[in-house]
Amino acid sequence: MTDAAIHLENLTISYGDTAVVHDVTFDVAEGESFALVGESGSGKSTILKAISGLAPDWTGTIAVEGKPRGHSPDRTFAETCQMVFQDPYGSLHPRKAIDTCLAEPLAIHGIGGRDGRVKDMLAAVGLDQRFRFRFPHQLSGGQRQRVAIARALMLEPRVLLLDEPTSALDVSVQAEILNLLKKLRREQGLTYLMVTHNLPVVSFLCDRLAVMRYGRVVEIAGVDALKSGQLSDPYSRELYAASGGILHPA
Ligand SMILES: Nc1ncnc2c1ncn2[C@@H]1O[C@H](COP(=O)(O)OP(=O)(O)OP(=O)(O)O)[C@@H](O)[C@H]1O
């Protein structure tokens, strides 16, 4: 086993009889921010789901922080690895106050220190303490995504899986959330594996990227190759051209 934060080896993932991710191998180093890019349906989200235990049918190796993932549900995994979704409503219960939403992971895992941790995480994501007693529908999209990020951090995971974390937000709010993710990574030494369609987001937040097509990784490159238009695979270059070249930090 490697000492990578995320280690994927010969990962193949199926829905029923259909394999949608084929033989994917890569490592994400401790503290690295790594992007999965590629056209819709190329298998990016499915990889995040398999790592977080939401896609049961896979073969190969998945290890997070040196711990191989099995096929059955594994609650201890949640303490090392959490997922943030595109739509924060997915992880927030509409009728539960933010305070309850945030404390829930601690209750599930039998961990104490509830109030202090809720306050700390609200502060970490830049929300005033009065948000504790509000409900998801009373928040803006950006505020809800801040809460979803705070919730993902409640168990002090080392790794965040980010599935298009800003694409449901207005452009000005996207920039705020990207700045927040950058700050949290710096402050907490987090590792990110992020799915995005947005190459400027990759150039702003990531160190490396894997380009996926039809369920396979066609290229892994450093973000400098992206910024300077030096991606080598023809399909990667197509994606780059379609993005209008480079690429203004969000
Ligand atoms: N629950 C499911 N059941 C059956 N097939 C699925 C399921 N979820 C995804 N798929 C299929 O798996 C393939 C990969 O989907 P996936 O969502 O991982 O792609 P993606 O690259 O993340 O796309 P997008 O950028 O649109 O989110 C697609 O062909 C999709 O139709």
From TrEMBL:
UniProt xrefs under CDD domains: ABC_NikE_OppD_transporters (cd03257)
One GO-annotated biological process of the protein: transmembrane transport
A Pfam short name: ABC_tran
UniProt keyword Transport, yes or no: yes
Keyword Transport: yes
Top-level taxon of the source organism: Bacteria
PROSITE patterns: ABC_TRANSPORTER_1 (PS00211), ABC_TRANSPORTER_2 (PS50893)
InterPro entries named among the record's database cross-references: AAA+_ATPase, ABC_transp_ATP-bind, ABC_transporter-like_ATP-bd, ABC_transporter-like_CS, P-loop_NTPase
GO molecular function, one term: ATP binding
Chain ranges of the ABC transporter domain: 6-239
Keyword terms, alphabetized: ATP-binding, Nucleotide-binding, Transport
PANTHER family: D,D-DIPEPTIDE TRANSPORT ATP-BINDING PROTEIN DDPF-RELATED (PTHR43776:SF7), TRANSPORT ATP-BINDING PROTEIN (PTHR43776)
Similarity comment text for this entry: Belongs to the ABC transporter superfamily.
Protein name as it appears in the record: Stage 0 sporulation protein KE
Natural source organism: Roseibium aggregatum
Lineage, opening ranks: Bacteria, Pseudomonadati, Pseudomonadota, Alphaproteobacteria, Hyphomicrobiales
